[in-house]
């Protein structure tokens, strides 16, 4: 049996609660689990965005527009989480009878104003976060004119959708107000308002379309890559956490419909707050995971180095090592493209023995190469001459650089040399 709060007891003492409404019913609450869910997702999002910033600032040493927009989104998100907790504590997610009979009119006004501010921040946070995603995709697709054009068109659509959502919220009532009066509030006759459900359903539909668009862009990037199916699958797993965001967006629309057209609409408000905060947090997480490639790469390289020292090395290369190196050679050189080149066109390849190509570079180039190996700019490239393959080649006395020109007329010679 739920505990009867002091607010309910006070409302009963003042005669504000009809006899047909039980105190146990008014005491029902989903506040605690909702707050736990909101704070958990908020903490997870904060940790992941901080890890992303660390990777970009201290490992890659490049902090782009996408990173800056993600940090700005995080600041908005923290405000949204705080306001959501305040709204829950004020009783916004309780039964509609609780709001009507237990809360005072001033408290109801405050819940409506806080809700208005929170949803302005929520809409803005999603918009800025999606712009961060577009900036990240543009950085990856800078050499793909068609995808770059699609990203720019998507940015225009995002701006138009955000302005529509913003003005729907701002002008939901005339004259403009932060209130959204219930029929039993005295201000109901002071404003000409669009229904809460109409505005939120319209905004939810636009948000869903934006989420579909944000999921389509990385799929286009991956589809157009000329890499192995295995590599495409790996990239899909990394870049498609946005599917979860899409599901969250659909659930939010369902809860909005319940909230407007159910007789006890406020009972769906707590889950809707959890879904909305999860949507912003999930979008931030989905767009931060690919940008954290450098951090994962750094961890994995340390683990591999430790494993190599602990297990020892063999002087004789295995067949598997030869096959791995062969794949790297074919991917890096891309001999299949030689037939499209003229006789004078050349590819840069070099084979030497027993020296480390990175160690022989000038210091500045060496640092740049090291950063690029683990940066997110090469996320959409095939494995090529990866750091792992360079170390494997060095282990077996093979030196790889990109120095000597090999013309297309000598492709057959290269094929024999690759064997």
TrEMBL record:
Q: Where is this region: Disordered?
A: 355-377
**Rhodopsin domain boundaries:** 51-296
Q: Which InterPro entries does the record cross-reference, listed alphabetically? A: Rhodopsin_dom_fungi, SAT4-like
Q: How does it sit in the membrane?
A: Multi-pass membrane protein
Q: Where is the composition biased (Basic and acidic residues)?
A: 364-374
Q: Which residues form a coiled coil?
A: none
**How is this protein named in the record?**
Rhodopsin domain-containing protein
Say which species the protein is native to.
Answer: Aspergillus ibericus CBS 121593
The uppermost taxa in this organism's lineage are: Eukaryota, Fungi, Dikarya, Ascomycota, Pezizomycotina
